[in-house]
Specification:
With 276 residues, this protein is an alpha+beta fold. The protein is built from 9 helices and 7 strands, in the order ααααββαββααββαβα. The protein has a domain of 124 residues: Heat Shock Protein 90. A 5-stranded mixed sheet has the order 1-3-4-6-5. The protein has a two-stranded antiparallel sheet with strand order 2-7. Helix 1 runs antiparallel to helix 2 and helix 5 runs antiparallel to helix 7. It binds adenosine-5'-triphosphate (ATP) and magnesium ion. The site of adenosine-5'-triphosphate has 16 residues, from helix 5 and helix 7.
């Protein structure tokens, strides 16, 4: 190799090194950005789960206050009205007025109870997940006129509190969507144990969700449902078929929601599952 060739060779090698070097630097930077993105996504998820827990706790507190304070006052008011009606001689006009006031107090007590239940899924603690979801199906039909069936292959399951709240809230959000968007006449809620998975399904026979609707940036309901599922190491899918309905399916590791799915026959006294 003569001098001229040597110089050309050296220049080319440097250029190639420079290009490879640049690419390498870009690649390393890209990798770092990717890792940072992944990390901040994880942090966001942890934050979302913590906020959710805080929200549930605050809701429980407000529900308790509404139920105990307001509920108590209204009950006292109703008792006072009943005492007046029974002990004082009243003109028919006043008696009618008192009757109307008593009916109003009763309606207010019912509203307070309803608000408290919406805020805190109290029935979950008292009745357990299966009975609560069966009740939701019944209430949904009564409020919307859309027929709603509940199916399960679980018997008296004993549930984790966090897990069952997540399942309950997902079903609630899905039913709200059915009422608001689906134009359906039928809905089905299913809670099924399949090997080591718990599968939650909400299906309707309405217009069917589209891909565009799913990708809508403001679709907070769907994002919230996904986050709830992810927080329990679960996954959630929504599929729609035009004019043939929408199906929401969430899979969870069974142990995240269900502790046991049968009541021990020999257990003395009421079992924990029965008490829930
Ligand atoms: N069961 C359903 N049938 C048909 N369309 C649906 C159904 N569920 C959701 N959608 C569509 O998907 C969109 C996103 O739903 P999402 O619950 O995320 O938002 P939203 O209900 O509009 O608002 P919100 O944040 O109050 O829940 C809805 O606006 C609706 O167009
Ligand atoms: Mg919604």
């Amino acid at each position: 190799m003569n001098d001229a060739q040597a110089i050309v060779h050296a220049l080319r090698t440097q250029q190639v090194d420079a290009i490879v070097g640049d690419r390498h630097v870009s690649f390393v930077r890209l990798k770092r950005v990717e890792l940072e993105l992944e990390r901040s996504r994880d942090q966001l998820r942890v934050l979302a789960a913590r906020l959710e827990l805080q929200r549930e706790n605050e809701r429980s507190e407000i529900a308790r206050e509404i139920h105990d304070e307001l509920g108590q006052s209204l009950t006292s008011l109703q008792l006072g009205l009943a005492w007046l009606t029974n002990t004082v001689t009243l003109t028919p006009k006043i008696r009618t007025k008192l009757k109307a006031m008593s009916a109003l107090a009763s309606a207010s007590i019912r509203s307070v109870r309803d608000v408290a239940v919406r805020l805190r899924p109290g029935p979950l603690d008292e009745l357990g997940l299966v009975k609560t979801l069966r009740g939701e199906a019944r209430a949904f039909k009564a409020h919307t006129g859309i027929s709603c069936r509940f199916e399960t292959n679980l018997q008296n399951p004993l549930c984790e509190r966090t897990g069952s709240i997540a399942v309950f809230r997902i079903v609630q959000a899905a039913l709200t969507n059915v009422a608001r968007h689906a134009q359906a006449s039928r809905a089905v809620i299913a809670l099924m144990k399949r090997r080591n998975d718990l599968v939650v399904m909400v299906r309707d026979n309405g217009r069917g969700i589209t891909r565009a609707q799913l990708a809508k940036p403001g679709a907070c309901g769907v994002i919230g449902m996904r986050e709830r599922a992810r927080a329990l190491d679960g996954r959630l899918t929504l599929t729609g078929s035009r004019g043939r309905g929408t199906t929401l399916t969430a899979h969870f590791p069974l142990a995240k929601v269900i502790v046991t799915s049968a009541v021990a026959a020999s257990a003395p006294g009421p079992s924990r599952a029965e008490r829930r």
